[in-house]
Each structure stands twice: as C-alpha cells, then as structure tokens.
Fold these 2 entries.
Entry 1:
Amino acid sequence: MLVRNNRYVTEETESRKGPAIDRTVGNLVNSSVAVALLQGGLSPDAAAAVAGAIGPMAEELSYSLRRRTVLRSARLQRFFEYSVRDQSTTIEQMLQEVTRDDLKAELLFRAIEAAKDSISEIKLQVLARAFATGAFAADEAVVDQSILIVEAISQLEAHHLRVLNILCGESTTHFDSSGAPVEEPVASELRNCWSDEQIAQADPGVAAVVNALTARLNNLGMLHDDSRSRLGIDVALWRLTVFGQACANELHRLGTQSGG
C-alpha cells in the first residue's frame, strides 16, 4: 500500500485500473492521429501505419506520467511520516496545527514542493527534519530559519549532503598562512578547514564532482573560504558557515534519531 490512510490510492487498485487508462489513452491518440492524417490527404494505409506507431508511444507516456504521480504521492507520505516520527502527534493533527499559522503554512508549502521531487531518501528525511523543526517551534525566528533551510536543501542532492557531513567533522590536516599543511594552523581562520582534495580523500565517491559540490554549497551560503579573501592563498579551504552548520545540524539530528 502506498499510504496507510484509505483516502489514498493503493498499489493494488492502481495496478488494476492503470493499464486500462493507458490503453484508452493510446487508442484515443491512435484514432485522433489517424483521422488528422486522413484529413491531411494521407492514404488510409499510411495513416493507419503512422497512427499505429504513435499509439503505443502515447500509452507508454500515459504510464510514465501516472507512475510519476504515484511515486510523488508515496514520497509525500514518507515525508510526513518522517516529520512526526519523533513527535507525540499524528500527521492529521500536525497538518491541522500547521495550517492555522500563516508562516508555518508557508513552510509546509515549500517543504512539500521540495519533497515531492526528491529522489534521494536522505534528502527527503533531511527536508522532513528541517520542516519538523519549524512546524513544532513556538519562535517565529525558528520557523523563518526552517524556511531558509528547506529552500537551500531543495537545491541539493545526496552528494552535497555527504560533503556537508564531512565538513562537520574535524579536519585531519591544518594549514599555515601560505596554504601549506601543518600540524597546527598559524591563522585561526584556517583551523579545521577542508580542501577539495581532503574532501575527496574522505569520501572517494564524490571525488569526480567535488569542485562542483563545494561551489554549489558556497553559492548557497553554507561554506566559506577565508583563505582566498583574507589570506591570498590560491587554494580554497572550506569551513561551514553558521547557516551551513544549521543545515548540517538537521542532517546530524536525523542520524542521531535514526540510530546512525
């Protein structure tokens, strides 16, 4: 079953009615194309051949669109389940409470928009945690921050989150004011910084795209590079900004609560 509430479509029901819908769409397109081609002067045999080729394509497109809708519904259900996982409330009660508050309703809308298109389960869970932080908060400033975090996370994928996770840890290499690795950093700005090379070594799975990942995180205000702006070093040495740490906190909170 896609969801636990009987107001929604189940996989069994979907499997029964779906193919019939797809065939109907295919047949309608087949007939419409055939008529249009005949009116355009094509012979009946040629019109039938062209329409016969297009009909199955329309049927397949119908299936793809229908399947996408089903997957989005399933993602949203999981998103809401993650949101209330550690709360003494139900999804229905949470939604009733959130929609009474304009600011929290805006947070809900933005979180849903991000969650329905999230193909990464980790991203979906982080979005749910960020939403829950604001949804159950009494302070409007916390809700505002959650909106910003949701907006930022919506622009990331699983690999970005892996880099965030690395940057939360303590760097094994420090740098002096020239960018050379040392046991203890000379400049306080370079304490616990990470280079792209270090990130790649810490997680080889992101090595091929690490420059693009850190660039995106930097553009979103999650990373800061003091080495170039303040010390003139020609090597980016990244560390989390306050906002980046807030985003990473949702990722870490997820890991803690899931037992990871």
Entry 2:
Amino acid sequence: MKKYLLIPLLLLSSLYAYPRCAPELKSALDTIYHFPEGKKLISDVEAEGPISIHWARFHSKSPAMWVGDDRAIVINANVPRPHGEVIRSIFFELHNAIAEKRFERLDWLAENRQISKNDYVESVERIEHENACAVAALVEKAISQGYFPPNARWHIAHDFETHYMIQRENGHSGNIASLYDSLSRKYYGYGR
C-alpha cells in the first residue's frame, strides 16, 4: 500500500519541474533547461512555487524583470533582442527569483522606514550585481560547453562601484528609488 502512496507524490513533485512559459519564449527556456546548472536553477526556483515567463510591454529600458508577487519573469516586449540575450535575461531573472527573500527583507525595511532610500537602492543593486556576476560566469561556461549561443555573453562590470555608477547613469537605480518611495508611503497609508 505504501508504494501506491509514493506514486501520486512523485507525480505531484513533477508538476513544478518546468515553468509555464509563453510559446515564443519556450525555445530560450528549453536552452536554459538543457544546461545542467540551468536545470538545477529552474528546479530550485520552482521548489518555492510555480513561476511563469511571459512578454509584456513596460516603459523601462530593462530587458526583463522578476515580479515576486506574481512569481513571474516578464520579458520586455518593447526591447527586441537576439535569442541569446533573451536566454541571458531569463537566466538572470531566475537568479533574482532565488534572491527573492533578500529583496523581500529590503522591501520590509523600506515599508517600515528602517532603511534610507540610498541604502535601499545600493543594497538592491548589490544583490543584482552579485547575480549578474554569477550569471556572466555561468553563461561563459554554457557557451564554452555549447549550450548557449555566443550572443548570450554578458559583458558586465565586475567591480561593484563601476556597476553602480552605470546603473545610476542608465536610470536603473532611479527605478529602484521610485520603488522605495512607493513602499515607504504604503506603510503610512499614502501609497498603493
């Protein structure tokens, strides 16, 4: 009788083995899934709950974003990119998904005004920089092993200060600062 109970549990655990994905993005996700480290990453993210990957138009120049509340990776439909860059964007946002608890902690601090705007922005940028460095290294490995195309390569600043300066100049840090404003007003009844 016990072996009959195990089968439904195995079937249930396999439900979260692969994210729901827009058909146009399935090829990029498949590419990540075939890379052993990518498959493990997807599995780790899905262990926290199912995710989806889809297109949307948003005003930011960012190629993609992780939306933790929806457990979704959203690819910016306004920014056309080669297949390799879409792969890299999804791969990066999977890393951000793994860091969700760290982002949530910073959001809580902002909501309760226990962190300054500058410290919040820098902390978020530090997490994303750590993720970007990890992704750049893994992308190089995947390219060298033939899993990812060469145009997935990511040339990033490996030192944080240079990265942070670039993020401030391109508006990314400003978007994070706006999020801080929204979060800190929310707690005091002024926001969303």
